Amino acid sequence: MMASDVLTIVLAGGRGTRLGPLTNDRAKPAVPFGGIYRIIDFALSNCVNSHLRRVMVLTQYKAGSLVRHLTQAWGFLCRELDEFIEVVPAQQRVGESWYEGTADAIYQNIYSIEKIPCRDILILAGDHIYKMNYKSMIDRHRERGADLTVACLPVPREEGREFGVMRVNDSGRVIDFLEKPENPEPMPGHPDQVLASMGIYLFSKNVLFDRLFEDAADRSGQSRHDFGRDIVPKMLTSHFVDSYPFRDENHKTPAYWRDVGTLDAYYAANMDLVAVDPVLNLYDREWPIHTYQPQEPPPKFVHDEPFSGRRGMALNSLVCQGAIISGGQVQGSVISPRVRVNSHALVKDSILLDNVQVGRHAVIKRAVVDKHVRIPPGFTIGLDPWLDRARGMVVTPKGVTIVPKNHDLDRFT
């Protein structure tokens, strides 16, 4: 398969309101993850590892941080060889409205898309954590002569309300598709599971264009111009819509795919990385996750005074370049670049983003601290949810405290 056969479009304009305050200043795909990555790095790495090197990234909401990251991390493809990751901002080319849905986002850029010769168009969300070889999906799509192929995987039935839920026949053809149903229908023989769409769509190019023009011309007011709610269900009776069971390149059991659409899901996915045998394998050289690597020195651990309890150490944690664990202790946590943990401080089961400074004797437990926050000496986070809320932080339904970017904690001392 040649790279010129397929154009990949990554939808990266989402607000990610359920990830606030982490999305107060950035789009959801630009939210940091796992210390040095951004969420969008996983979809883009899947593309490069699948030998798909012609990618358009559609942006909209607060895209500055995302565009900067893409420029820094993903500028290595060679345009002279017809390889590119091209950022396409919302332009209101076909009207005065911003994107009204996932299908409308592509329709509004159809003028740019149709200039790129290709046979099929792969549409991805830029806000999921997973490893997948898209080439296998493309091969199946072509072998079976499908008009549209939708990637899918089983999820617990109680989570089905958050996804498009599919039913397929014995050959794998999609016969029913409901977006975020209130009472999702279980899989045959599996009463506790539903077959969920992963938001990965592979269209034959002409079929996609026809469906987008048809949807845009709908004047009934019923269409939300969304693939899951409108495009896919309408195609079931007129086109061959095939399913593609997710094949995980993570090589673990069970298959790893995370929609980090809520703060608790985001926290849990990061915590997946710090186990002795991490659920998500970032160390597979055959399927690397690419990102921007800041020019920082190696992480440093200083002070070892066992009698006073002053020891710089980290256990079951990720500690990134430029971080200094200066006499403090880190347990089960993700420590991003340029973080400093000072003497006698404790950071446990937490995620500290870039340039967080932890003062002496401070205690942080089950928290996500966004960039450029200074935690005063003796300060506590994650021990008292009522106190955390009173200090302007967010506490999730599962009790994780979120500290907004640049949050001024000194005024509470």
SSE layout:
Layout: E1 6-11, E2 32-33, E3 37-38, H1 40-49, E4 54-59, H2 64-73, E5 84-89, H3 102-107, H4 110-113, E6 120-125, E7 128-130, H5 134-143, E8 148-156, E9 164-168, E10 174-179, E11 193-204, H6 205-216, H7 227-235, E12 241-245, E13 257-259, H8 263-271, E14 300-302, E15 304-305, E16 310-311, E17 313-315, E18 318-319, E19 324-326, E20 329-331, E21 334-335, E22 340-341, E23 346-348, E24 351-352, E25 357-358, E26 363-365, E27 367-369, E28 374-375, E29 380-381, H9 385-390, E30 394-395, E31 401-403
Parallel strand pairs: 1-4, 1-6, 4-5, 8-12, 14-19, 17-20, 18-21, 19-22, 20-23, 21-24, 22-25, 23-26, 24-27, 25-28, 26-29, 27-31
Antiparallel strand pairs: 2-3, 6-11, 7-13, 8-11, 9-10, 9-11, 15-16, 30-31
How would you describe this protein?
With 413 residues, the protein is α/β, with parallel strands linked by helices. The chain has 9 helices and 31 strands. Strands 1, 4, 5, 6, 8, 9, 10, 11 and 12 form a 9-stranded mixed sheet that branches. Strands 18-21-24-27-31-30 form a 6-stranded mixed sheet. It has a 5-stranded parallel sheet with strand order 14-19-22-25-28, with no helix packed on it. Strand 9 and strand 10 form a beta hairpin. The protein is elongated, with a radius of gyration of 23 Å. Pathway: Glycan biosynthesis; glycogen biosynthesis. Alpha-D-glucose 1-phosphate binds at residues 99, 164, 179-180, 197.
